[in-house]
């Protein structure tokens, strides 16, 4: 199977945040690489989104969508920088 | 298309024997992967059991495949709702691998090449309930399906049957693995539809 890029989880992340998180910048906990969430390499779409750092392949974030809940696991990211609306 | 379609909803899925609730039958073997497929040369493969006291027991490929193996035919159930019935595997029972391991641990963490983990209670690995499989349908297990060797725990959802296994850590307390930490159920019984935390 081939991965997608992080932009493919824009719809699921829209359920969690009022801003477009794919435009936010993450900092990878594994290697310190920083880039837009939309640039993550996206695996595992059937069970949930697994966003891996394009530099070191570590898992930066995971999004699991249950019928009644969405789980966001950010332990692979030391920082998420989100643009403020209107700025 | 007519107004009445006999094909849609005409047969309850639960009516298929061996199919847990909410599952559908597939004859394919879908590939799900949380990361790139590792390619592990057999001369670099090993499997290590680490006990709760730090004792370790390790097998290389030659030692592992020299252990007594079993041919098993089992049904497998993926949490993404496909089930495949009557799959045939060859592997080494966890009973065999753990036979000489001194432990009182109640829980285990399965480890894989590539960093994947999943937690399984010890009792779910013993008494002929789990294997490390290295053949599927009479052929060497392909990397896409977890080769050289994968866990096979057919009574739990298939994410517990970790691909590309390389070790087992025995633990006194339960801890979440890769998908469990991200919201999936700690145990994963398909007959109870234990898909997500709280199910």
From TrEMBL, chain A:
Origin superkingdom: Bacteria
Pfam families: DUF6510 (PF20120)
Protein name: Uncharacterized protein
Organism annotation: Paractinoplanes tereljensis
Automatic annotation (TrEMBL), chain B:
Superkingdom: Bacteria
Pfam families assigned to the protein according to its UniProt record, in alphabetical order: Oxidored_molyb
Stretches for region Disordered: 1-21
InterPro entries: OxRdtase_Mopterin-bd_dom, OxRdtase_Mopterin-bd_sf
UniProt cross-references to CDD domains, sorted A to Z: arch_bact_SO_family_Moco
Record domain Oxidoreductase molybdopterin-binding: where: 35-179
Name of the protein: Molybdopterin-binding protein
